[in-house]
Amino acid sequence: MSGSHQLTDSTSCRCRVKRGWEVWNLKNLFQKHALEIQRVLQKSGHGSDVAEDLTQDAFVRLLVSETSQQADNPRAYLHKVAKNLAVDRHRRERVVPMDAISEDRYQALPDEAPGPEKIIADRQQLALLQRRLAALPLPMRRAFELYRLHDLTIAEVALELDLSVSRTWTLIRQAYVQLRAGLDD
Description:
Layout: E1 12-17, E2 20-25, H1 26-43, H2 48-64, H3 74-95, H4 103-108, H5 116-135, H6 138-149, H7 154-161, H8 165-184
Antiparallel strand pairs: 1-2
Helix pairs in contact: 1-2, 1-3, 2-3, 5-8, 6-7, 6-8, 7-8
């Protein structure tokens, strides 16, 4: 492996096995298995840099953990850790893909922010909606505000306004109709 990570002869870790503790010499394990693990990771679709990083991470994981799993077979344990790290990396990349793009491609990306005309039109529509909401009869406005702005259920709004559920629903539906008509003008 081309990485700058060096293991000295004294680098070892203790791992619990069925009958006591076994000391593994990490330098020997690294020399024996690192290239093999890296190749397996590359064959599973990872680039050489990623495979190298995952391989080194597997050895770091071995160094810092005291495990009883597969302690009698360090090669199998290292392969399992490397595979799990690869799966974790794949999940992270799927959630947050990280693609490097050039500055030219970045500058060529379309700006998805609304233009000044859209901002002005939206502000005008919002002002119109606020005026229409203020002009609604008080019980209708109050029912609508409690339902839409305060996230109360229809039953909770009815209880708050001391109305039946069906009357409350009628008020809210009428508010929607009147507000929508105000936007279509």
